[in-house]
Design a protein that fits this description.
- This protein starts with a helix and ends in a 5-residue tail after the last strand.
- The chain contains 5 helices and 8 strands.
- It is of the alpha+beta class.
């Protein structure tokens, strides 16, 4: 009698745990899809491969407890320090390469720019969302290869005081769990890339950077997570 009673209790507890895990996985999947469309637009197609990747990640992490608020804040603070350090070094290097003297005024402008620019706020928001969803103890950086990003040269049409302008842009879409783009060199440095570095992207997120007006995209070198990758672009006839 008692043995049967305890067996029923065990089955009930298992069912509750299973429902809780399934609910967590479903909630995680719904959030991933919502984040994907938020980053790429509601009309951007969610392919079967991307959906299955989201599903695998959510099922894998559903059995683990979410990261505590304190651990997220600690990791976020560490990330902020690293972001600002990388950003300052990148801007200093560009200033030196241009032949300008790095004086006190430049230092103040660099520090302020690396703390208040829209790219920093966007990257911080993405990082906080990522830290809240990743399993505790999971690494932040991804193992990257050539296929970790989709790259494209696009033309954005703008209207400025009644004049139509066609502006070339460089688009990056992440196909990895997490990437850090430290630098981009287009056409051996002959094309200017207008943006703040580093750029942080998560799976499915995209970033568009302005190129100099007369740039015809032929090749690009991307420095991601401290590795360089070369890409060639087919020219339209």
């Amino acid at each position: 009698m008692f043995k049967k009673f305890f067996h029923c209790i065990a089955l009930l507890l298992f069912a509750i745990a299973y429902v809780g895990t399934a609910s967590a996985a479903t909630s995680c999947l719904d959030q991933r899809i919502k984040d994907f469309h938020s980053a790429n637009g509601p009309e951007y197609p969610l392919t079967h491969d991307v959906y299955k990747e989201f599903q695998r990640e959510c099922n894998k992490s559903s059995g683990k407890s979410a990261a505590s608020h304190e651990s997220v804040e600690a990791e976020l603070a560490q990330w902020e320090k690293q972001y600002k350090r990388d950003c300052v070094e990148s801007r200093k290097r560009k200033l030196r390469d241009s032949g300008n003297k790095l004086d006190a005024l430049h230092q103040v402008m660099i520090d302020k720019g690396c703390s208040n620019n829209p790219d920093y706020q966007e990257a911080k928001s993405s990082m906080k969302r990522y830290l809240n969803h990743k399993p505790p103890g999971a690494p932040i950086e991804s193992q990257l290869d050539y296929n970790s990003v989709d790259l494209a040269g696009i033309v954005k049409t703008t209207h400025f005081y009644g004049r139509v302008q066609h502006n070339p842009m460089f688009q990056i879409v992440s196909r990895a769990g997490y990437i850090k783009v430290d630098d981009i060199v287009v056409n051996h440095g002959q094309c200017d890339v207008r943006g703040n570095f580093p750029v942080y992207l998560f799976y499915g997120e995209k970033k568009q950077l302005w190129l100099s007006t007369d740039c015809n995209l032929i090749e690009a070198k991307l420095k991601m997570n401290d590795q360089w990758f070369d890409y060639k672009f087919r020219q339209s006839s």
